[in-house]
C-alpha cells in the first residue's frame, strides 16, 4: 500500500458544503482523517457566506481559512505556501459540477459525493477535464468500501461463483413516506427539488448506489435497461419509488429497486448474486456477514475476519479491526478515501497514470451513474421501453 511518504506530511483537506445541518459533511471528514493521513484545514461550508464562516468552528477550521465561497477558497489557497491538496464536495447535487470544475482547474484533487453531477452532459464534461489533468478524482460510492463487499468482488472475479447469471440489488428506506420537504426539512427539501437534485429522486439519490454495487461486485457490463419510476406522495415532482431491469452483455439479468417510502425501513442496502457454481447475499445493515450458498452443501456465513484462511487479499486489505469488532459505515467510507490517498501519493511520486491504483470509484463510475439515472428516467417516461445502457466510459 502506498503511503504519504512521497509528501512527507499529511494531506491537507478542504471541505465544500457540509455546514450546519449537514449529515454527510461530518462523514467525509471522519473518513478522511480515520487513518491519520489527512487533516482538515480549510472550508467553504455553505452557500451562505455568514453560515459558511460560522460553521468553521464546528470543524476546528481556523478563521483565516474559513471562506465565504468555493471560488474564494480556491483563489486564496492557490496563493498560500501551504495550500490544500484535495477538496471534498459535500453539497447538494447541483453544485457538484461547478465546484469540481473549479477545483480541477486550480490543480486540486477531488473527492465528490454521488451522484456525480446534475446532468449527464455535466458528468461527461467533468470526465474530459479530469482526463486532461493530473488530478485524482474519486466518487464516494462508499458501499464499495465494506470489507465483505471487496471480499465478494474478488471471489466473483476469480470465478468462485462460476458464470454470473442474476444480480438483485435494492436500497430501501422509509423516511420520505410523508412529505417532509413541506415541513422545512433541509435534507428532504433539496432531494425532492429537481433544480437541486436532478431529474430523479430516489433513483438518483439511492438507486445509483444499488446499481453501482452490482457493477462493482460483478464487473458485468450493462447492455440495456427498462425502468418504471413513480411518485407515491404527490405533489412531489421526483420519484420516491422505482425499479429497473438490466440486461448485461454476458446474458445475465439484473434488477435495481429503490424506495424512500417503505414503512419502517431505515438504510436497507442489500444485494444477491447468482452464479452457476454458487450464490451470495450481503446486507449493509448487517455488513460483517456474507452468505454463500451451494446446492447440496451447508450454507456458509463468511464473517469479517482479517486473519481467517477464507478471507482473500481484497477483504483483508479493507479491514482495520480484529474479528468480532464490527466495522461499518465510517470505515467503508474511509476505505474509499484510503484508496484515493494511495493514488494521490503515487501521483506525487511520479507514477504513470496507467499504473496508479483505481480500486476507488472514479469519475468514469460517476459518469456511468449519471447515465443510469438518465436512461432510467427516459425509459420510465416511455412506459418502460428498453434503452441502451452501455456508456463508452464504463469500466469493468
Principal-axis shape equals globular
Structural class by secondary-structure content: alpha/beta
CATH class of the largest domain: Alpha Beta
On the 0 to 100 scale, the average pLDDT is 95
Give the biggest beta sheet.
Answer: 9 strands, mixed
CATH superfamily of the largest domain: Dihydrodipicolinate Reductase, domain 2
Tell me the helix content.
Answer: 25-40%
Straight-line distance between termini: 22 Å
User: How much strand?
Assistant: 15-25%
How many domain regions?
A: 2
Please tell me the CATH architecture of the largest domain by its name: 2-Layer Sandwich
Q: Strand sequence of the main sheet, in spatial order?
A: 13-12-11-10-6-9-8-7-14
Q: From N to C, what is the helix and strand string?
A: EHEHHEHEHEHEHHHEEEEEEEHHHE
Number of helices: 12
CATH fold group of the largest domain: Dihydrodipicolinate Reductase, domain 2
Q: Low-confidence parts, pLDDT < 50 over ≥5 residues?
A: none
- Radius of gyration from the alpha-carbon trace, in angstroms: 21 Å
Find the count of extended strands (DSSP E, 2+ residues).
14
Structure described in brief:
With 396 residues, the chain is an alpha/beta fold.
Amino acid at each position: 500500500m502506498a503511503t504519504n511518504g512521497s509528501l512527507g506530511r499529511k494531506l491537507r483537506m478542504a471541505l465544500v458544503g457540509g455546514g450546519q445541518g449537514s449529515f454527510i459533511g461530518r462523514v467525509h471528514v471522519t473518513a478522511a482523517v480515520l487513518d491519520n493521513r489527512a487533516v482538515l484545514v480549510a472550508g467553504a461550508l455553505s452557500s451562505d457566506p455568514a453560515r459558511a464562516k460560522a460553521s468553521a468552528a464546528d470543524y476546528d477550521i481556523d478563521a483565516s481559512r474559513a471562506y465565504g465561497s468555493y471560488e474564494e477558497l480556491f483563489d486564496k489557497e492557490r496563493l498560500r505556501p501551504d495550500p490544500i491538496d484535495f477538496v471534498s464536495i459535500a453539497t447538494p447535487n447541483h453544485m457538484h459540477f461547478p465546484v469540481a470544475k473549479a477545483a480541477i482547474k486550480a490543480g486540486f484533487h477531488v473527492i465528490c459525493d454521488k451522484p456525480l453531477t446534475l446532468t449527464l452532459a455535466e458528468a461527461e464534461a467533468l470526465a474530459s477535464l479530469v482526463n486532461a489533468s493530473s488530478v485524482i478524482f474519486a466518487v464516494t460510492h462508499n458501499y464499495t468500501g465494506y470489507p465483505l463487499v471487496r471480499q465478494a468482488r474478488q471471489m466473483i472475479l476469480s470465478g468462485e461463483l462460476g458464470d454470473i447469471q442474476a444480480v438483485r440489488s435494492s436500497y430501501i428506506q422509509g423516511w420520505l413516506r410523508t412529505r417532509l420537504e413541506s415541513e422545512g426539512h433541509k435534507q428532504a427539501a433539496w432531494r425532492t427539488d429537481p433544480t437541486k437534485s436532478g431529474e430523479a429522486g430516489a433513483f438518483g439519490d439511492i438507486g445509483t448506489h444499488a446499481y453501482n454495487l452490482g457493477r462493482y461486485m460483478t464487473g458485468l457490463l450493462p447492455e440495456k435497461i427498462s425502468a418504471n419510476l413513480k411518485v407515491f406522495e404527490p405533489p412531489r415532482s421526483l420519484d420516491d419509488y422505482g425499479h429497473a431491469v438490466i440486461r448485461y452483455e454476458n446474458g445475465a439479468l439484473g434488477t435495481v429497486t429503490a424506495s424512500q417510502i417503505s414503512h419502517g425501513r431505515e438504510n436497507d442496502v442489500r444485494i444477491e448474486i447468482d452464479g452457476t457454481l454458487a450464490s451470495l447475499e450481503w446486507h449493509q445493515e448487517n455488513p460483517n456477514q456474507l452468505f454463500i450458498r451451494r446446492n447440496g452443501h451447508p450454507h456458509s456465513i463468511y464473517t469479517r475476519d482479517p486473519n481467517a484462511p477464507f478471507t482473500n487479499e481484497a477483504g483483508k486489505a479493507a479491514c482495520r479491526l480484529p474479528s468480532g469488532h464490527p466495522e461499518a459505515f465510517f470505515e467503508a467510507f474511509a476505505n474509499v478515501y484510503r484508496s484515493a490517498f494511495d493514488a494521490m501519493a503515487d501521483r506525487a511520486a511520479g507514477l504513470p497514470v496507467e499504473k496508479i491504483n483505481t480500486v476507488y470509484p472514479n469519475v468514469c463510475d460517476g459518469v456511468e451513474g449519471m447515465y443510469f439515472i438518465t436512461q432510467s428516467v427516459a425509459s420510465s417516461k416511455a412506459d418502460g421501453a428498453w434503452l441502451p445502457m452501455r456508456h463508452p466510459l464504463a469500466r469493468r
